[in-house]
Specification:
This protein has ten helices and 21 strands. With 470 residues, it is an alpha+beta fold. Helix 5 (284-301) packs antiparallel against helix 6 and helix 5 packs parallel to helix 10.
Amino acid sequence: MTRRVPSRRLLSLAFLLVLPGVILCVWAASAGYFLIGALMLSIFVVLSLFDFLLSRHCLDGVEFHLPQTIRGTRGAEQELRVECCNLSRGPLAVIRFGLELGQNLRAAGDRIVEWPTLQSGEKASSTYPIIGLRRGTHVISAVHFETVSRWRLWLVRSSAASHVTVHVYPDLAPERKRLSSKFLVRGADGARILRQQGKGRDFEQLREYQTGDEFSDIDWKATARRREPVTRTYQIEKTQEVYVIIDHSRGSARELREPVEGSFSEDWLYSETGQGGEYLITTQLEKFLQSAMLLGAIAERQGDQFGCLTFSDRVSHFIRAKGGMSHFHLIRDAIVALQARKVAPDFQEATVQLATHLRSRSLLVFLLDLTDPLTAEQFCESIALLSKRHLVVVVMIRPDGAFPAFSSDVEIETLDDGYEQLAGHLKWKELNKTAAQLKRLGVDMIMASHEGLVGEVIAQYFDAKERQRI
Protein backbone atom coordinates (compact mmCIF):
# COMPACT_ATOMS: atom_id res chain seq x y z
CA MET A 1 0.00 0.00 0.00
CA THR A 2 1.42 3.36 -1.09
CA ARG A 3 1.18 6.35 1.24
CA ARG A 4 2.44 9.94 0.99
CA VAL A 5 4.08 12.08 3.65
CA PRO A 6 4.89 15.80 3.36
CA SER A 7 8.53 16.49 2.64
CA ARG A 8 10.65 19.26 4.07
CA ARG A 9 10.20 21.22 0.85
CA LEU A 10 6.42 21.11 1.22
CA LEU A 11 6.66 22.23 4.84
CA SER A 12 8.94 25.09 3.85
CA LEU A 13 6.52 26.06 1.08
CA ALA A 14 3.68 26.00 3.58
CA PHE A 15 5.64 28.30 5.86
CA LEU A 16 6.26 30.71 2.97
CA LEU A 17 2.76 30.68 1.40
CA VAL A 18 0.14 29.31 3.79
CA LEU A 19 1.11 31.22 6.91
CA PRO A 20 1.26 34.66 5.21
CA GLY A 21 -1.81 33.84 3.12
CA VAL A 22 -3.89 32.99 6.22
CA ILE A 23 -2.72 36.16 7.96
CA LEU A 24 -3.64 38.31 4.94
CA CYS A 25 -7.06 36.66 4.58
CA VAL A 26 -7.97 36.97 8.26
CA TRP A 27 -6.59 40.40 9.07
CA ALA A 28 -6.86 41.98 5.60
CA ALA A 29 -7.34 45.75 5.76
CA SER A 30 -8.61 45.88 2.20
CA ALA A 31 -9.87 43.61 -0.56
CA GLY A 32 -6.46 43.73 -2.29
CA TYR A 33 -4.69 42.12 0.63
CA PHE A 34 -7.43 39.49 0.85
CA LEU A 35 -6.99 38.61 -2.84
CA ILE A 36 -3.22 38.33 -2.42
CA GLY A 37 -3.69 35.98 0.54
CA ALA A 38 -6.22 33.87 -1.31
CA LEU A 39 -3.85 33.70 -4.32
CA MET A 40 -1.00 32.45 -2.11
CA LEU A 41 -3.21 29.74 -0.60
CA SER A 42 -4.46 28.75 -4.05
CA ILE A 43 -0.91 28.43 -5.40
CA PHE A 44 0.05 26.18 -2.48
CA VAL A 45 -3.02 23.96 -2.87
CA VAL A 46 -2.60 23.64 -6.66
CA LEU A 47 1.12 22.81 -6.48
CA SER A 48 0.80 20.27 -3.66
CA LEU A 49 -2.31 18.62 -5.13
CA PHE A 50 -0.87 18.44 -8.65
CA ASP A 51 2.39 16.91 -7.36
CA PHE A 52 0.35 14.53 -5.20
CA LEU A 53 -1.54 13.26 -8.25
CA LEU A 54 1.61 12.90 -10.36
CA SER A 55 3.20 10.62 -7.74
CA ARG A 56 0.34 8.11 -7.56
CA HIS A 57 2.08 5.26 -9.39
CA CYS A 58 5.75 6.13 -9.10
CA LEU A 59 6.55 3.09 -6.89
CA ASP A 60 4.32 0.58 -8.67
CA GLY A 61 7.18 -0.81 -10.73
CA VAL A 62 9.81 -0.99 -7.98
CA GLU A 63 10.89 -4.52 -7.02
CA PHE A 64 13.31 -5.67 -4.34
CA HIS A 65 15.18 -8.97 -4.48
CA LEU A 66 16.73 -10.47 -1.33
CA PRO A 67 18.29 -13.89 -0.70
CA GLN A 68 16.08 -16.50 0.88
CA THR A 69 18.60 -17.58 3.52
CA ILE A 70 21.70 -16.12 5.14
CA ARG A 71 23.87 -17.62 7.87
CA GLY A 72 26.22 -16.14 10.40
CA THR A 73 27.58 -16.23 13.92
CA ARG A 74 26.02 -14.47 16.88
CA GLY A 75 27.60 -11.07 17.39
CA ALA A 76 29.31 -11.01 13.97
CA GLU A 77 28.30 -8.98 10.93
CA GLN A 78 26.42 -10.74 8.14
CA GLU A 79 26.16 -9.10 4.75
CA LEU A 80 22.69 -9.16 3.24
CA ARG A 81 22.73 -8.27 -0.45
CA VAL A 82 19.73 -6.20 -1.54
CA GLU A 83 18.91 -5.55 -5.20
CA CYS A 84 16.37 -3.02 -6.45
CA CYS A 85 14.93 -2.88 -9.97
CA ASN A 86 12.99 0.09 -11.39
CA LEU A 87 10.37 -1.28 -13.79
CA SER A 88 8.29 1.91 -13.86
CA ARG A 89 8.07 4.19 -16.91
CA GLY A 90 9.96 7.11 -15.45
CA PRO A 91 13.14 7.62 -13.44
CA LEU A 92 13.19 7.86 -9.67
CA ALA A 93 15.06 10.85 -8.32
CA VAL A 94 16.15 9.04 -5.19
CA ILE A 95 15.15 5.84 -3.40
CA ARG A 96 15.73 4.85 0.22
CA PHE A 97 15.03 1.54 1.89
CA GLY A 98 15.21 -0.15 5.27
CA LEU A 99 14.52 -3.66 6.54
CA GLU A 100 12.15 -4.78 9.28
CA LEU A 101 14.67 -6.64 11.44
CA GLY A 102 12.83 -7.33 14.68
CA GLN A 103 14.29 -7.40 18.18
CA ASN A 104 16.82 -10.22 17.60
CA LEU A 105 18.62 -8.55 14.69
CA ARG A 106 20.33 -5.18 14.44
CA ALA A 107 21.70 -3.13 11.57
CA ALA A 108 25.48 -2.84 11.76
CA GLY A 109 25.51 0.58 10.10
CA ASP A 110 22.83 2.99 8.91
CA ARG A 111 19.35 1.54 9.12
CA ILE A 112 18.34 3.44 5.97
CA VAL A 113 20.27 3.05 2.69
CA GLU A 114 19.91 5.65 -0.05
CA TRP A 115 20.53 5.30 -3.78
CA PRO A 116 20.79 8.21 -6.25
CA THR A 117 18.71 8.54 -9.41
CA LEU A 118 17.47 5.19 -10.70
CA GLN A 119 16.51 5.24 -14.36
CA SER A 120 13.69 3.19 -15.82
CA GLY A 121 14.80 -0.44 -16.28
CA GLU A 122 17.95 0.12 -14.22
CA LYS A 123 19.08 -2.04 -11.26
CA ALA A 124 20.96 -1.06 -8.15
CA SER A 125 22.40 -3.28 -5.43
CA SER A 126 23.91 -2.77 -2.03
CA THR A 127 24.98 -4.75 1.04
CA TYR A 128 23.01 -4.31 4.22
CA PRO A 129 25.15 -5.48 7.18
CA ILE A 130 23.20 -6.96 10.08
CA ILE A 131 24.20 -8.48 13.42
CA GLY A 132 22.43 -11.40 15.09
CA LEU A 133 21.88 -10.63 18.76
CA ARG A 134 20.53 -14.03 19.77
CA ARG A 135 20.97 -17.62 18.64
CA GLY A 136 18.14 -19.01 16.56
CA THR A 137 16.30 -18.69 13.27
CA HIS A 138 14.91 -15.22 12.61
CA VAL A 139 12.88 -13.80 9.74
CA ILE A 140 13.12 -10.44 7.98
CA SER A 141 9.48 -10.04 7.09
CA ALA A 142 9.35 -6.77 5.11
CA VAL A 143 11.35 -4.15 3.27
CA HIS A 144 10.17 -0.52 3.51
CA PHE A 145 11.18 1.96 0.82
CA GLU A 146 10.42 5.51 -0.28
CA THR A 147 11.11 8.00 -3.05
CA VAL A 148 10.31 11.65 -3.70
CA SER A 149 7.61 13.02 -5.98
CA ARG A 150 8.43 14.82 -9.20
CA TRP A 151 8.61 18.26 -7.58
CA ARG A 152 9.94 16.77 -4.29
CA LEU A 153 6.94 18.00 -2.30
CA TRP A 154 5.93 14.53 -1.10
CA LEU A 155 7.70 11.44 0.19
CA VAL A 156 6.07 8.40 -1.39
CA ARG A 157 6.40 5.32 0.81
CA SER A 158 5.57 1.67 0.31
CA SER A 159 6.38 -1.79 1.68
CA ALA A 160 6.97 -5.20 0.22
CA ALA A 161 6.88 -8.56 1.94
CA SER A 162 10.12 -10.50 2.19
CA HIS A 163 10.88 -13.96 3.50
CA VAL A 164 14.55 -13.84 4.41
CA THR A 165 15.52 -16.52 6.93
CA VAL A 166 18.51 -15.59 9.08
CA HIS A 167 20.27 -18.46 10.87
CA VAL A 168 22.31 -17.17 13.80
CA TYR A 169 24.69 -19.80 15.18
CA PRO A 170 26.58 -19.82 18.47
CA ASP A 171 30.15 -18.62 18.30
CA LEU A 172 32.34 -21.74 18.46
CA ALA A 173 35.69 -20.00 18.03
CA PRO A 174 36.30 -19.20 21.73
CA GLU A 175 35.38 -22.76 22.73
CA ARG A 176 37.76 -24.19 20.15
CA LYS A 177 40.59 -22.27 21.76
CA ARG A 178 39.84 -23.91 25.09
CA LEU A 179 40.20 -27.39 23.71
CA SER A 180 43.49 -29.17 23.53
CA SER A 181 45.11 -29.13 20.10
CA LYS A 182 44.79 -32.91 19.84
CA PHE A 183 41.02 -32.53 19.61
CA LEU A 184 41.31 -30.51 16.42
CA VAL A 185 43.61 -32.76 14.39
CA ARG A 186 42.44 -33.08 10.80
CA GLY A 187 42.62 -36.68 9.63
CA ALA A 188 46.26 -37.80 9.62
CA ASP A 189 47.84 -34.33 9.91
CA GLY A 190 50.63 -34.52 12.47
CA ALA A 191 50.16 -38.30 12.68
CA ARG A 192 52.28 -40.27 15.12
CA ILE A 193 52.42 -43.89 16.18
CA LEU A 194 50.02 -44.68 19.02
CA ARG A 195 49.33 -47.95 20.75
CA GLN A 196 45.97 -49.20 19.53
CA GLN A 197 43.79 -50.37 22.40
CA GLY A 198 41.18 -53.02 21.69
CA LYS A 199 40.50 -54.49 18.27
CA GLY A 200 38.38 -53.72 15.30
CA ARG A 201 34.92 -55.09 14.71
CA ASP A 202 34.80 -55.27 10.90
CA PHE A 203 35.43 -58.78 9.54
CA GLU A 204 38.56 -58.95 7.39
CA GLN A 205 39.43 -62.59 6.58
CA LEU A 206 39.80 -66.18 7.83
CA ARG A 207 43.17 -67.69 8.68
CA GLU A 208 44.62 -70.71 10.44
CA TYR A 209 44.46 -70.75 14.21
CA GLN A 210 47.60 -69.43 15.92
CA THR A 211 48.69 -69.75 19.51
CA GLY A 212 47.23 -66.91 21.54
CA ASP A 213 44.07 -66.46 19.50
CA GLU A 214 40.94 -66.09 21.59
CA PHE A 215 38.41 -68.88 21.46
CA SER A 216 35.65 -66.34 20.83
CA ASP A 217 37.31 -65.51 17.47
CA ILE A 218 37.22 -69.10 16.19
CA ASP A 219 34.84 -69.63 13.27
CA TRP A 220 33.37 -73.02 14.14
CA LYS A 221 31.58 -73.55 10.83
CA ALA A 222 34.78 -72.98 8.85
CA THR A 223 36.65 -75.17 11.34
CA ALA A 224 34.20 -78.00 10.73
CA ARG A 225 34.55 -77.71 6.95
CA ARG A 226 38.37 -77.62 6.97
CA ARG A 227 38.71 -79.99 9.94
CA GLU A 228 41.28 -77.69 11.52
CA PRO A 229 40.91 -74.57 13.72
CA VAL A 230 40.14 -71.41 11.74
CA THR A 231 40.15 -67.91 13.26
CA ARG A 232 38.33 -64.79 12.19
CA THR A 233 40.43 -61.61 11.91
CA TYR A 234 39.03 -58.13 12.17
CA GLN A 235 40.10 -54.72 10.95
CA ILE A 236 39.78 -51.29 12.48
CA GLU A 237 36.63 -49.46 11.43
CA LYS A 238 37.40 -46.41 9.33
CA THR A 239 33.91 -44.91 9.52
CA GLN A 240 31.82 -44.97 12.67
CA GLU A 241 28.44 -43.54 13.55
CA VAL A 242 28.19 -40.91 16.26
CA TYR A 243 24.88 -39.54 17.56
CA VAL A 244 24.32 -36.67 19.94
CA ILE A 245 21.00 -36.71 21.81
CA ILE A 246 19.87 -33.38 23.26
CA ASP A 247 17.17 -33.06 25.89
CA HIS A 248 15.52 -29.63 25.61
CA SER A 249 12.82 -30.16 28.23
CA ARG A 250 12.50 -28.14 31.44
CA GLY A 251 15.83 -29.36 32.86
CA SER A 252 17.79 -27.77 29.99
CA ALA A 253 16.49 -24.33 30.98
CA ARG A 254 18.46 -24.40 34.26
CA GLU A 255 20.47 -21.19 34.55
CA LEU A 256 24.24 -21.12 34.80
CA ARG A 257 25.60 -18.15 36.76
CA GLU A 258 29.03 -16.82 37.47
CA PRO A 259 30.04 -13.60 39.24
CA VAL A 260 31.61 -10.91 37.11
CA GLU A 261 35.20 -10.95 38.27
CA GLY A 262 38.31 -10.13 36.30
CA SER A 263 38.49 -11.84 32.94
CA PHE A 264 35.08 -13.48 33.39
CA SER A 265 33.39 -10.30 32.20
CA GLU A 266 34.95 -10.75 28.73
CA ASP A 267 34.12 -14.47 28.47
CA TRP A 268 31.71 -15.55 25.74
CA LEU A 269 29.77 -17.73 28.15
CA TYR A 270 28.40 -14.86 30.14
CA SER A 271 27.09 -12.80 27.24
CA GLU A 272 24.72 -15.37 25.74
CA THR A 273 21.37 -14.15 27.03
CA GLY A 274 22.03 -11.09 29.14
CA GLN A 275 22.94 -9.93 32.60
CA GLY A 276 21.24 -10.58 35.92
CA GLY A 277 22.41 -8.23 38.66
CA GLU A 278 25.94 -9.11 39.72
CA TYR A 279 25.81 -12.34 37.69
CA LEU A 280 25.98 -13.01 33.97
CA ILE A 281 23.58 -15.72 32.87
CA THR A 282 23.27 -18.46 30.27
CA THR A 283 21.42 -21.80 30.23
CA GLN A 284 22.33 -25.46 29.99
CA LEU A 285 20.75 -25.72 26.54
CA GLU A 286 23.20 -23.17 25.15
CA LYS A 287 26.07 -25.34 26.34
CA PHE A 288 24.43 -28.48 24.95
CA LEU A 289 24.17 -26.89 21.51
CA GLN A 290 27.78 -25.69 21.67
CA SER A 291 28.90 -29.23 22.46
CA ALA A 292 26.75 -30.81 19.74
CA MET A 293 27.91 -28.48 16.97
CA LEU A 294 31.56 -28.80 17.86
CA LEU A 295 31.32 -32.59 18.18
CA GLY A 296 29.70 -32.74 14.74
CA ALA A 297 32.43 -30.60 13.20
CA ILE A 298 35.20 -32.74 14.69
CA ALA A 299 33.49 -36.02 13.75
CA GLU A 300 33.22 -34.79 10.17
CA ARG A 301 36.94 -33.97 10.14
CA GLN A 302 37.73 -37.44 11.47
CA GLY A 303 35.72 -39.05 8.67
CA ASP A 304 32.95 -40.39 10.92
CA GLN A 305 29.23 -40.16 10.29
CA PHE A 306 27.32 -37.78 12.54
CA GLY A 307 23.63 -37.81 13.48
CA CYS A 308 21.37 -36.03 15.94
CA LEU A 309 18.18 -36.50 17.93
CA THR A 310 16.45 -33.83 20.01
CA PHE A 311 13.50 -34.46 22.29
CA SER A 312 11.43 -33.11 25.16
CA ASP A 313 8.02 -34.67 25.77
CA ARG A 314 8.27 -35.89 22.17
CA VAL A 315 10.98 -36.30 19.55
CA SER A 316 11.57 -32.97 17.83
CA HIS A 317 14.26 -33.89 15.29
CA PHE A 318 15.85 -37.14 14.22
CA ILE A 319 18.53 -37.03 11.53
CA ARG A 320 20.29 -40.24 10.49
CA ALA A 321 24.08 -40.26 10.64
CA LYS A 322 25.86 -39.35 7.41
CA GLY A 323 29.14 -37.73 6.44
CA GLY A 324 30.09 -34.53 4.68
CA MET A 325 29.82 -30.83 5.43
CA SER A 326 26.43 -30.52 3.74
CA HIS A 327 25.00 -33.02 6.23
CA PHE A 328 26.63 -31.16 9.11
CA HIS A 329 25.03 -27.92 7.89
CA LEU A 330 21.67 -29.72 7.73
CA ILE A 331 21.94 -30.71 11.40
CA ARG A 332 23.17 -27.28 12.41
CA ASP A 333 20.19 -25.58 10.75
CA ALA A 334 17.81 -28.04 12.40
CA ILE A 335 18.97 -27.47 15.98
CA VAL A 336 19.96 -23.80 15.86
CA ALA A 337 16.42 -22.67 16.74
CA LEU A 338 15.98 -25.20 19.55
CA GLN A 339 14.40 -23.71 22.69
CA ALA A 340 13.80 -25.16 26.15
CA ARG A 341 10.24 -26.34 26.77
CA LYS A 342 8.54 -26.42 30.17
CA VAL A 343 7.59 -30.08 29.94
CA ALA A 344 8.85 -33.35 31.41
CA PRO A 345 11.15 -35.41 29.16
CA ASP A 346 9.88 -38.60 27.55
CA PHE A 347 12.94 -40.87 27.50
CA GLN A 348 10.99 -43.90 26.36
CA GLU A 349 9.95 -42.33 23.06
CA ALA A 350 13.50 -41.17 22.37
CA THR A 351 15.07 -44.56 23.12
CA VAL A 352 12.47 -46.43 21.07
CA GLN A 353 13.14 -44.10 18.15
CA LEU A 354 16.87 -44.82 18.34
CA ALA A 355 16.47 -48.55 18.87
CA THR A 356 14.16 -48.79 15.87
CA HIS A 357 16.27 -46.87 13.37
CA LEU A 358 19.87 -47.60 14.38
CA ARG A 359 21.06 -50.87 12.91
CA SER A 360 24.82 -50.74 13.47
CA ARG A 361 26.59 -50.18 16.77
CA SER A 362 26.99 -46.44 17.39
CA LEU A 363 28.29 -43.99 19.96
CA LEU A 364 25.33 -42.25 21.62
CA VAL A 365 26.20 -39.11 23.58
CA PHE A 366 23.31 -37.94 25.76
CA LEU A 367 23.31 -34.30 26.86
CA LEU A 368 20.73 -33.90 29.62
CA ASP A 369 20.11 -33.04 33.25
CA LEU A 370 19.63 -35.89 35.76
CA THR A 371 19.54 -33.72 38.87
CA ASP A 372 15.92 -34.65 39.57
CA PRO A 373 15.81 -38.19 41.11
CA LEU A 374 12.54 -39.04 39.37
CA THR A 375 13.94 -38.01 36.00
CA ALA A 376 17.08 -40.05 36.66
CA GLU A 377 15.02 -43.12 37.56
CA GLN A 378 12.98 -42.84 34.36
CA PHE A 379 16.13 -42.48 32.30
CA CYS A 380 17.72 -45.57 33.85
CA GLU A 381 14.60 -47.60 33.04
CA SER A 382 14.57 -46.46 29.41
CA ILE A 383 18.28 -46.61 28.57
CA ALA A 384 18.50 -50.38 29.08
CA LEU A 385 16.93 -50.73 25.63
CA LEU A 386 20.02 -49.13 24.03
CA SER A 387 22.96 -49.93 26.32
CA LYS A 388 23.21 -53.60 25.29
CA ARG A 389 23.69 -52.80 21.62
CA HIS A 390 25.29 -49.34 21.55
CA LEU A 391 27.96 -47.46 23.42
CA VAL A 392 26.06 -44.93 25.54
CA VAL A 393 27.70 -41.98 27.30
CA VAL A 394 25.81 -39.46 29.45
CA VAL A 395 27.40 -36.05 29.93
CA MET A 396 25.71 -33.55 32.22
CA ILE A 397 26.62 -30.29 33.93
CA ARG A 398 27.40 -30.66 37.60
CA PRO A 399 24.94 -28.63 39.71
CA ASP A 400 26.32 -25.82 41.85
CA GLY A 401 27.72 -27.10 45.11
CA ALA A 402 27.32 -30.81 44.27
CA PHE A 403 30.55 -31.96 45.92
CA PRO A 404 31.40 -34.21 48.87
CA ALA A 405 31.16 -32.41 52.19
CA PHE A 406 34.28 -30.46 53.22
CA SER A 407 35.96 -31.13 49.86
CA SER A 408 35.46 -27.66 48.34
CA ASP A 409 37.62 -24.62 48.92
CA VAL A 410 34.71 -22.69 50.46
CA GLU A 411 35.28 -22.08 54.14
CA ILE A 412 32.44 -22.75 56.56
CA GLU A 413 32.03 -19.56 58.58
CA THR A 414 28.33 -19.63 59.48
CA LEU A 415 25.66 -22.21 60.11
CA ASP A 416 24.12 -21.44 56.72
CA ASP A 417 27.42 -22.33 55.04
CA GLY A 418 27.33 -25.69 56.78
CA TYR A 419 23.80 -26.36 55.59
CA GLU A 420 24.81 -25.45 52.02
CA GLN A 421 27.72 -27.90 52.21
CA LEU A 422 25.37 -30.59 53.49
CA ALA A 423 22.83 -29.91 50.71
CA GLY A 424 25.59 -30.11 48.12
CA HIS A 425 26.79 -33.40 49.60
CA LEU A 426 23.27 -34.87 49.31
CA LYS A 427 23.11 -33.78 45.66
CA TRP A 428 26.51 -35.35 45.00
CA LYS A 429 25.48 -38.58 46.73
CA GLU A 430 22.26 -38.85 44.71
CA LEU A 431 24.09 -38.22 41.43
CA ASN A 432 26.72 -40.84 42.26
CA LYS A 433 23.94 -43.28 43.03
CA THR A 434 22.53 -42.63 39.55
CA ALA A 435 26.00 -43.00 38.01
CA ALA A 436 26.49 -46.37 39.73
CA GLN A 437 23.12 -47.58 38.51
CA LEU A 438 23.97 -46.55 34.94
CA LYS A 439 27.38 -48.19 35.22
CA ARG A 440 25.70 -51.52 35.93
CA LEU A 441 23.83 -51.04 32.65
CA GLY A 442 27.08 -50.35 30.78
CA VAL A 443 26.53 -46.60 30.55
CA ASP A 444 29.21 -44.09 31.51
CA MET A 445 27.98 -40.94 33.25
CA ILE A 446 30.24 -37.88 33.30
CA MET A 447 29.61 -34.80 35.44
CA ALA A 448 31.49 -31.79 34.09
CA SER A 449 31.63 -28.13 34.98
CA HIS A 450 29.85 -25.82 32.57
CA GLU A 451 33.23 -24.47 31.40
CA GLY A 452 34.51 -28.00 30.72
CA LEU A 453 31.40 -29.59 29.23
CA VAL A 454 32.46 -29.23 25.59
CA GLY A 455 35.95 -30.56 26.30
CA GLU A 456 34.54 -33.56 28.15
CA VAL A 457 32.19 -34.44 25.28
CA ILE A 458 35.06 -34.34 22.79
CA ALA A 459 37.29 -36.34 25.16
CA GLN A 460 34.69 -39.11 25.39
CA TYR A 461 34.46 -39.25 21.60
CA PHE A 462 38.23 -39.60 21.14
CA ASP A 463 38.47 -42.12 23.95
CA ALA A 464 35.85 -44.31 22.26
CA LYS A 465 37.74 -44.13 18.97
CA GLU A 466 41.17 -44.90 20.44
CA ARG A 467 39.87 -47.85 22.43
CA GLN A 468 37.71 -49.11 19.56
CA ARG A 469 34.72 -49.30 21.89
CA ILE A 470 32.21 -48.47 19.19
